[in-house]
Design a protein that fits this description.
By secondary structure, the protein is mainly beta. Helices cover 0% and strands 46% of the residues.
């Protein structure tokens, strides 16, 4: 059974940091393109950052460039999202998603492209 599990969310003050983890079971995450999405109440799901198959290429939404970093650890079958300089507008449920059958340079922030999804982890940025 293919499964993605997110963790690492929580409550943080503005300017603080969090690291989210997306761990896969049942498949090798490094063989997939993996993207972090987020969805705030009343808003559409937004692509935040993508790492291509094998970690060759990364892609970031303009709203998080310079603050967020995506990375992968093949030994742990995990993709991370390091979030620094957090702002209240980063508050959302964060999801990771994976897509197979891609090239090593393929990236996308569109949710309709992804096949497998985790259950999400809540990130709240508030003082």
């Amino acid at each position: 059974q293919l499964q993605l599990v997110e963790s690492g969310g929580g409550l943080v003050q503005p300017g603080g940091s969090l690291r989210l983890s997306c761990t896969a079971s049942g498949f090798t995450l490094g063989d997939y393109a993996v993207t972090w999405f987020r969805q705030a109440p009343g808003k559409e799901r937004e692509g935040v950052s993508c790492i291509s198959r094998g970690g060759v290429r990364t892609l970031y939404a303009d709203s998080v460039k310079g603050r967020f970093t995506i990375s992968q650890d093949s030994a742990k079958n995990t993709v991370y999202l390091q979030m620094n300089s957090l702002k209240p507008e980063d508050t959302a449920v964060y999801y990771c998603a994976a897509k197979d059958g891609t090239s090593k340079i393929w990236t996308s922030l569109y949710p309709q492209h992804y096949d497998y999804w985790g259950q999400g982890t809540q990130v709240t940025v508030s003082s």
